[in-house]
């Protein structure tokens, strides 16, 4: 485990975040705008929690308004309110942003509530109670103490929104790659390849020595960037498709929400609605056409279950190492490992969280 600078945790570490916010007498300041803020505010509305104001990092305060509030700088908020609670409404892995969050939570009670990136439902005490048996199954499948510790801390963080708890279980991606023992003769399948950044991460780690790369990215703009970024890899070594990973070969409607936050909607085949774009969707088994893979990465914005089901033949036959995002949907942390174990019970599971607030880089490494 990596050492994290000592920073105070929330002032009520045993209390769930929504209770802490509903019972506080302090003004609640929302840090951030956009989709993340909307999701958190929708849940706050259910609890009757009202924000006092909104702020953003100084470089983003340019006369913006949000929900009828003029977005302010931290210095303005400090002058207006003195003491207050900060609710983080965005996600970041950038070291300078994480440092800024740490600076704020040294001074003020600060939370990063866990809300699903996709879908509904909260990972709260009711969820834990309802899924106690599945959580016990999951813990029994984890292969080492760091994984079991990570599970305990991620669950505590999801209940409390306490950033200190979350940051205490961070490990580096280098450590995760060492678990995977990636070599120079890999057939790598990148699902949710975005603009090619994770392909380049793989290339950097292997010294650009590999057997074959398959990359799927459904967003057209991101796919164009991927093609430009990876122009130097020959077609014989790189199969890149503007398509989504799914559990069957079909056409889906893709809703572009910009960047990595785009999503696919099943049940809309043959339709275009709003900004929806008809998008090819294929299974990994179809993509590989019976050929083996040695490493598959699943980061497909909430479609991980479908993508895993579409890889079932490959997982059963070839047992590729898997990197699976466990944070898009509320149930992913529990349901996806159990699904993989059902498909092929020979895997060893390692759970790791990499530096990111909130818990948007919590991954399962299957070996």
Which descriptors apply to this entry?
single chain, 367 residues, alpha/beta, Rossmann fold, 2 domains, seven-stranded mixed sheet, four-stranded parallel sheet, 15 helices, 19% strand, disordered N terminus
The CATH class label of the largest domain is Alpha Beta
CATH level 3 topology of the largest domain: Rossmann fold
Q: How far is it from the N-terminal to the C-terminal residue, by CA?
A: 20 Å
Nearest-integer average pLDDT: 91
Q: Please give the domain count.
A: 2
CATH superfamily of the largest domain: Vaccinia Virus protein VP39
| Assigned CATH architecture of the largest domain | 3-Layer(aba) Sandwich
Report the oligomer. Answer: single chain
The shape, in one word, is: globular
DSSP strand content: 15-25%
Our count of helices gives: 15
**Strand arrangement across the biggest beta sheet:** 9-8-7-14-15-17-16
Helix amount: 25-40%
Extract low-pLDDT stretches: 1-10, 266-274
The profile of the biggest β sheet is:
7 strands, mixed
Rounded radius of gyration (Å): 21 Å
Tell me the structural class: alpha/beta
Beta strands, count: 17
